[in-house]
Amino acid sequence: MVNQGDISLSHVGTSDMVADIFTKALGPKVFSTHCYALGLRTRHPRLGSASHSRGGV
Questions:
Q1: Could you report the per-residue pLDDT of 1-56, keeping only the tens digit for each?
Q2: Which of 5, 36, 1, 29 is nearest to 15 (CA)?
Q3: CA 28 to CA 13: how far, in whole Å?
Q4: CA gap 11, 42 in Å, rounded
Q5: 0.90 cut: is pTM over it?
Q6: Measured between alpha carbons, how far is 32 from 29 in angstroms, rounded to an integer?
Q7: Who contacts 2 (Cβ-Cβ below 8 Å, separation ≥6)?
Q8: DSSP string spanning 24-56?
Q9: What is the separation, in whole angstroms, between the first and last Cα of the chain?
Q10: Is 19 left (phi over 0), alpha (psi -120 to 50) or beta?
């Protein structure tokens, strides 16, 4: 199909490839942007914060 011209392939960089959250270690900003684009939301917005990780409330 590619050889026949029915499908065109092009490079998509990490800044636009939302599936990279499943395959690469991304910085927090890119990770959050891609999660939002996929409709993923956290149920625990403070998860990972300093007070939470130390057992604080």
A1: 778 888 888 999 988 999 999 999 999 999 999 999 999 887 766 665 554 445 55
A2: 29
A3: 17
A4: 30
A5: no
A6: 5
A7: 8, 9
A8: S---HHHHHHHHHHTT---S-TTTT-HHHHTT-
A9: 56
A10: alpha
Instruction: Supply 18's token pair.
Output: 């939302």
Task: In whole angstroms, give the CA distance from residue 4 to residue 8.
Answer: 10
Residue with tokens 């392939």: 9
Is 46:52 a contact under the CB 8 Å cutoff?
Answer: yes
Rounded Cα gap, residues 7 and 26, in angstroms: 29
